[in-house]
Write a sequence for this structure.
């Protein structure tokens, strides 16, 4: 009896965890250091995160190794021949907080994105 209960409880937790991964598919914008516009287009498929951004030169930069689990996300982009690992938290349906490496080895930067589409 206890075994069946534990198995059922574990199954429910697994289903809730899988279903909880937020769908942040869409266009998101924000500012780096309150000066530089930044935009991401995200697409979620299960726990896989894809999409991209645009570099300073206007070139498309695809997201690599994107993962979304619950309210956390992580991915990397290649910016000027350097892989930059980015992590984040989904605050609600319209806000994501990204943490990215600081410039010149400085402290990490926090960028808040808002959903626009």
């Amino acid at each position: 009896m206890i075994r069946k209960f534990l198995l059922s409880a574990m199954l429910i937790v697994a289903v809730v965890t899988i279903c909880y991964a937020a769908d942040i598919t869409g266009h998101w914008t924000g500012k780096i250091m309150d000066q530089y516009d930044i935009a991401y287009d995200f697409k979620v498929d299960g726990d896989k995160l894809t999409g991209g951004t645009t570099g300073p030169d206007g070139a498309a930069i695809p997201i690599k190794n994107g993962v979304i689990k619950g309210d956390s996300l992580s991915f990397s982009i290649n910016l000027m021949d350097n892989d930059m690992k980015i992590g984040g938290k989904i605050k609600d349906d319209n806000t994501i907080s990204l943490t990215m490496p600081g410039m010149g080895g400085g402290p990490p930067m926090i960028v808040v994105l808002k959903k626009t589409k």
